[in-house]
Each structure stands twice: as structure tokens, then as C-alpha cells.
């Protein structure tokens, strides 16, 4: 092994070698930390200056993961620090100086209480990421924020929030837990249609299984509550199996053939943007009507059949919007809408995630086909490109100190004083 011919014992040269490698690691880690520190600042700037909107990305974390070519988890740590930069100036400074890693500062930013910057900046210098996690668990959890005084009207009124579905449990007794659902109209129509479809399915099944009506032992007639539970179970069984050949959750849309005015079945009128979004994929059933009388369903021309869907999944694999890579609950989007004569065929269809599908039909991103020459651009017309922005460096690495790393010692929690938030009067 030894090639020096000096006769030095192999162990010594191995430990020297390791020492040299460790020195280099320490320097590289310092540089990487400093670079991550700058990436955190860039993420904070993108957020602060409201630049996310023109990128087509769903969040700053998704944007960072895409442009830096890093994992969603790493991107999340970066964004978590970026969100609390002002609260943790010392920790952030140590990241920029190379002395703490993005994972160390990430767990602090994720869990640490207000005013704890000094405490954790100190601790992190000698603690590993898991030791920091333990320390953060020992921190007493803050009490809920006091409710804002309704008479205090100094602040300008907030813009009305976008309606969001909520599920809250409202209590329980020995037999039941009680739940309350609050759904925006579109979601509610979907929920109602899904429930109805599952209820019909259960009734059909019941009739099939229990043809002898006089049998006392047979289970009770299926309720809407039973239907709700099969709906939950169906959702549990992975979205992929649900469509297109499983039991459809069908939303019915009525479209007036003369005026293109659409309404949800038993529900509100839709804006034309909502109509085109809802009717793009095969997740809803469209009834064309003239003077309130149905004249046809138009289903045959736009339904993405099982084989077509498979071919599409095989070709696209995930949402086609660059940087997204989402694979769950994908919609088959018609590049040229079938209302405008677009065909339901491979070259006119692409898979998009629900987020980007909505973003497209709201005009935030543009998807131009045919599918084999797909172009996706943001709302300013700038093309969105896949792949990270990484390229070989042209500047010297940041001039920072080396990264000492955690001490590697077993933490002695007996002597550790968790961070205590200062008492407020
Ligand atoms: Zn679409
Ligand atoms: Zn997407």
C-alpha cells in the first residue's frame, strides 16, 4: 500500500491521508453552506418582491427545487429559512459565513420559537441536525396567539379570502365523532356527485347480493353515510385506479348550445373560464341544451378512453409543465379545447396536475401544441424550460472559513437548558 518507500507504518499514512481529505471536506462544506446561504437570500427576495407569480411554479419551494435541481425536502428547508430570515439573523449569518449548514438552520427555522436566535445560533455550532431536533422538542410549545381585538381597527381590511374547503370535527360522544364540512360551490358539486354515484353503486350491489327481501339476516339498506365511507376508501386506493375506468366521480355541467352559458347541475352558473376548465378533462359530463332541453352529451368526442389515457401516461409520465413533475391526480388537458374543435387524440392531449391545469385555464400559463412540439410559457410569454439552472462555475467559490461540523459527541441532555421564551406581561 505504501509507495513512499520511507518505511512509515501504513496506519500513519492512512490517517494523514484522512486528515487531508477531512480538511478538504471541511473547506468544501463551508463553501457549500455559504452558497446555500445566498440561495436562501435569493428565495427570500423572490418571495418578497412578488416574482413567483410570473414563473409558473406553484410555490417558491417548487421553484427552487426546479431551478437548483435539488430535492423538494432540501428546497423546503431553504424556503423555511427564507421565511424567517428576519427572526434568525445570527443563524442566517452563520450560514452565509459557512459555519452552519442549511439542514441545521432549516430545523431551527422550522420549529424554534420566537426570540430564540441567539440560543440556537450558539447551540448549533456544536450540535448535529438530530441533536438540534431533540433540543427543539424540549422547547415548551407556545400558547395560542391571543385573538385580535375586533375593536382595534388600525389595520386596513384584508382582501376577502378565496373560499377553501374545510373539514372540522365538532365533538364526540361514546359512539360517534361529529364532523362539519364546508365546501366552495365547485367542490360541493363534485362531492355531491361523488356521493350520489357511490350511493347508487352500493344500492345496485345490495340488490344484486340480497334478492330475498324476506331474509331477516340481511344487512340494512345502504345509506348515504355508507356511500361516504366507500368514497373515502376509493380515494384511499390510489387515484390511478380511480380513473378513467373505475367509478367516475362525475360532475354534470349544463351548457346552453347557443350562448355557451354553463351551469353546474343543481348548482350555480359558471364563468366561461370555469366552464372551459371543468369541461376540458373527462372528469365531468356535459349536457348541451337548447332552450333548456337537452340535445346531446358530446361525451363521445372528448372522453379520454382507457387506452388513450394509458398511452398518455406512458408518454408524459407526469405533469408536462417544466419543473413540476407532479404525478398525482393528473388531468388530460386538451391543448385545443374540444369546444374549439380540438380532437381527443394523443397529439392534442397532455397530462397536467390540477394546479397547473387551473393555472392554465386562468391564463397564468400558456400551453401550445401539438404535444410532440409542446411549448409552455408563463403569462409574460417567456418559455418555461425544464432542468436546473446549474452550470459550471465561472467565479471563485465564496471566501469563507471552514465548516467545523458538530462535535460528534453524545449530547449530555442532563445539562442542557431548553430555550425558554421570555415571559411577557
Ligand atoms: Zn384543460
Ligand atoms: Zn404541474
From TrEMBL:
<dbReference type="Pfam" id="PF01844">
    <property type="entry name" value="HNH"/>
</dbReference>
<dbReference type="InterPro" id="IPR002711">
    <property type="entry name" value="HNH"/>
</dbReference>
<feature type="region of interest" description="Disordered">
    <location>
        <begin position="376"/>
        <end position="412"/>
    </location>
</feature>
<dbReference type="InterPro" id="IPR003615">
    <property type="entry name" value="HNH_nuc"/>
</dbReference>
<dbReference type="GO" id="GO:0004519">
    <property type="term" value="F:endonuclease activity"/>
</dbReference>
<dbReference type="InterPro" id="IPR003870">
    <property type="entry name" value="DUF222"/>
</dbReference>
<dbReference type="GO" id="GO:0008270">
    <property type="term" value="F:zinc ion binding"/>
</dbReference>
<dbReference type="Pfam" id="PF02720">
    <property type="entry name" value="DUF222"/>
</dbReference>
<feature type="domain" description="HNH nuclease">
    <location>
        <begin position="307"/>
        <end position="358"/>
    </location>
</feature>
<comment type="similarity">
    <text>Belongs to the Rv1128c/1148c/1588c/1702c/1945/3466 family.</text>
</comment>
<dbReference type="GO" id="GO:0003676">
    <property type="term" value="F:nucleic acid binding"/>
</dbReference>
<protein>
    <recommendedName>
        <fullName>HNH nuclease domain-containing protein</fullName>
    </recommendedName>
</protein>
<feature type="region of interest" description="Disordered">
    <location>
        <begin position="139"/>
        <end position="171"/>
    </location>
</feature>
